[in-house]
Design brief:
20 strands; 2 helices; disordered N terminus; mainly beta; 316 residues; 41% strand
Length: 316
């Protein structure tokens, strides 16, 4: 890792923290676990946590923590031969000191991670590859760039997702815009295909949907906090919206979920960048790169100060 990056990244045995600007009392910051390459914290300049983390998150287990941002590779869900959501989130990554497959972005507040399978490979997925992840921090922005390189002697296909657990004030006060008129698969109705009819997605019950061929920007508007998250993605054609009102105190099933609090559903929403409908196929030596940028706007549609169409289509 370059000296400039070491100034902005504080690395321990199990995690690394980046700040922007470095050594400032009002820095943006992000903490990344080496286990699973998982982002477990993203704070703004006021020290406010922007990512959801379950109150009952289990931090000492061989599984991803419930919350933050995780990479799902080589498959999302049960769509392939690997374990559910793939194994990349359940394996220790290492710092990548020579990220030659990702051009320098000139941002000292970033960190590069790499995962290469050992002799055992990924569970039930016998292919050779390199998976890289760059996390970059800026004012009001958190950018993640993923790179998959086929180092095998034969082609392979994969699906991929970045699961984003976002912190919200009250799920009943949240709306998602940018998904109107799109087709989606509803996992609560046998994965049947429907078309979104609403101008915006709001929440009064459990939601688990795969939206297909989504736009570059998706806006998550939190009325109570007067804050909008924008998910900007490149080379991620699909999106997953997941909100589990099913997990609540009066549902007996909640007692079997040791890593999710009974009331957690009220303060979280997952909107993921994904490749689902059409898997990526790489021939030997080929690469794929996908980018996701999370940003915040200190306003909301209900305040009358923010036109959501400006968020979705840009301010220029």
């Amino acid at each position: 890792m370059e000296t400039s990056r070491l100034l902005a990244a504080h690395t321990q045995a199990h995690s690394t923290t980046v700040a922007h600007p470095a050594h400032s009392s009002t820095s943006y910051s992000s903490t990344i676990l080496l286990y699973g390459g998982q982002v477990v914290s993203w704070k703004n300049e006021h020290g406010e946590e922007l990512l959801f983390m379950s109150r009952k998150a289990i931090r000492k287990s061989a599984k991803a923590i419930k919350g933050g941002i995780s990479s799902y590779f080589p498959q999302f869900g049960n769509s392939g031969s690997s374990e559910q959501h793939g194994s990349a989130r359940n394996i220790k990554w290492t710092l990548d000191n020579c990220p030659f497959h990702l051009a320098s972005d000139g941002n000292p507040s970033s960190v590069d991670l790499i995962f290469k399978p050992n002799g055992n490979g990924i569970k039930m997925w016998a292919h050779s590859f390199e998976l890289r992840l760059r996390i970059s921090l800026g004012p009001g922005k958190l950018t993640l760039i993923s790179n998959v390189r086929n180092t095998d002697t034969k082609s392979f296909s994969f699906t991929f997702a970045m699961r984003n657990y976002l912190s919200v004030s009250d799920i009943s006060e949240v709306r998602v815009e940018g998904l109107e008129t799109l087709d989606y698969l509803d996992n609560l109705r046998q994965s049947k295909r429907f078309t979104e009819q609403a101008d915006a997605l709001t929440f009064d019950g459990e939601v688990d949907r795969y939206y297909l061929r989504t736009p570059t920007n998706i806006a998550i508007i939190d009325h109570e906090k007067k804050r909008t998250f924008v998910v900007h993605k490149e080379h991620f054609p699909d999106a997953v919206v997941w909100q589990a009102v099913l997990w609540n105190p009066w549902d007996k099933g909640a007692k079997t979920l040791s890593d999710f609090g009974d009331e957690d559903y009220k303060i979280m929403l997952s909107v993921d960048s994904a490749i689902l409908e059409k898997p990526i196929t790489l021939k030997p030596s080929e690469e794929w790169k996908g980018c996701q940028e999370l940003s915040t706007v200190s306003s909301s549609y209900c305040s009358g100060q923010l036109d959501p169409q400006m968020v979705l289509h840009g301010f220029s």
